[in-house]
Design a protein that fits this description.
- The chain is of the alpha/beta class and 402 residues long.
- Helix content is 30%, strand content 28%.
- The protein has two domains: 31-245, no CATH class; 250-397, Nutrient germinant receptor protein C, domain 3 (GMP Synthetase, Chain A, domain 3), CATH 3.30.300.
- Helix 9 crosses helix 10 (323-351).
């Protein structure tokens, strides 16, 4: 009798465990039946898209600004083939499918894609979001609302701004990658090679800036048929794009906020005006320190940079293994960096009044009492804020020339 009870308990336990192990998800969709969305582009709606005979047209139930939302869907069978850049491939054959829908909101457009895409759209692998600059001049927080609200979206998705047609970037035919969205997303990874690339600009960072009411920057991208270039940045104030920074100012912006972890500095010595020296950045450390007095506040930047000599243009491979010569080169680099940083700060203060340098954040952190007095009028204070820049350069490696 006892053995029968134990046997029954064992069977009951085995059945219970089996139920948990073998149970599946009732709402599951097989991976080969998903429409993987790798990129999204947002443009202003063109009048040609409003033609009722157009595939992009969608009858709307509400009024409001119209946007052209374009998605990048990989063609899996094509992606498994040899990359088009290799011998025997077709360089003009796209390996992705772009669909555009005109709508007031992306959520509505997303549901409309299902009328043309035979697999349900799936965004957990979203790589890139590209926004046209005309669209970005409006409040982009409302355009990113679904991306920040929906559980499928990832905070690591990269966000870019383009002065051209955003959908064109999703139609690029890459030479190496299968998808233009993957190509675009990977470009900021080269930031250790050049500081002209912004890299800490994913959806999560944008969300933090929006919620903290901070000004911010996003990378500028342009494209042709086969290539995408990522350099320079767009400046945002109150969640609206107010202008651009060129590549050099973008580079020194990263010095100011302590984000630069690679790149170079080119300098000329007075006696070698036609022979530039290219110095490679090995390490940069920037400290922002607010200087507060009874009636004023200033910012002080202390920058320490370790550089290597990457290349010289001196005739005859002139030997640079000379301490006096290296000291002269270090002083020239310090002067150049100081000037470029001061120029970048004054340009942003004068043209945009956008605190993309985190000066306000650091005053709030290190001088909270002063911040309480300044925060209501910070936009005006920032435009005339005095910033002292101290630069110390050390050249560690001279390289081999023999």
């Amino acid at each position: 009798m006892k053995n029968n009870i134990l046997r029954r308990l064992f069977l009951l336990s085995l059945i219970s465990i089996t139920v948990f192990i073998l149970s599946g998800c009732w709402g599951k969709i097989e991976i080969e039946r998903r429409g993987y969305i790798l990129g999204v582009a947002i443009d202003k709606a063109d009048t040609k898209n409003l033609n009722t005979a157009s595939f992009e047209y969608m009858p709307l139930e509400t009024t409001g600004p119209l946007y052209a939302f374009t998605i990048d869907v990989p063609i899996i069978s094509s992606s498994l083939n040899k990359p088009s850049g290799q011998s025997g491939g077709n360089a003009d054959k796209a390996r992705n499918w772009t669909l555009t829908v005109i709508s007031n909101t992306f959520f509505e457009a997303n549901r409309q894609y299902s009328t043309r895409l035979n697999y349900p759209p799936y965004y957990s692998h979203l790589q890139s979001i590209v926004i046209n600059s005309d669209v970005a001049e409006d409040d982009i927080s409302k355009l990113l609302d679904m991306f920040l609200r929906d559980t499928e979206m990832r905070r690591r998705t990269k966000v870019f701004i383009t002065p051209g047609h955003a959908a064109d970037l999703l139609r690029v035919i890459p030479k190496i990658d299968n998808s233009p969205s993957q190509y675009l997303k990977s470009l900021p990874n080269n930031n250790f090679k050049t500081s002209r690339l912004l890299h800490k600009t994913d959806l999560g960072k944008v969300s933090e800036a929006i919620h903290e009411h901070r000004d911010f920057v996003l990378p500028k991208v342009v494209a042709n048929k086969y290539e995408i270039k990522d350099a320079g940045c767009a400046v945002f104030k109150d969640n609206k794009m107010v202008g651009w920074l060129d590549e050099i100012r973008t580079s020194y912006l990263k010095w100011i906020v302590n984000y630069a972890n690679g790149g170079l500095v080119s300098v000329n010595l007075p006696e070698c005006s036609n022979s530039p020296f290219t110095l490679e950045i090995k390490k940069i450390k920037t400290k922002q320190k607010p200087i507060v007095t009874e009636d004023s506040v200033e910012m002080e930047l202390d920058i320490k940079a370790n550089l290597d000599i990457g290349e010289t243009s001196l005739p005859g491979l002139r030997n640079v293994f000379n301490s006096e010569f290296c000291s002269q080169l270090e002083k020239a680099a310090e002067k150049k960096i100081k000037k470029q940083i001061e120029d970048t700060i004054s340009y942003v203060q004068r043209e945009y009044g956008a605190d993309v340098f985190y000066f306000g954040t650091n005053i709030q952190r290190f001088a909270p009492k002063a911040w309480d007095k300044l925060k209501d009028n910070w936009d005006e204070v920032f435009k005339t804020l005095r910033v002292t820049v101290n630069v110390e350069v050390k050249i560690n490696q001279l390289g081999l020339t023999r």
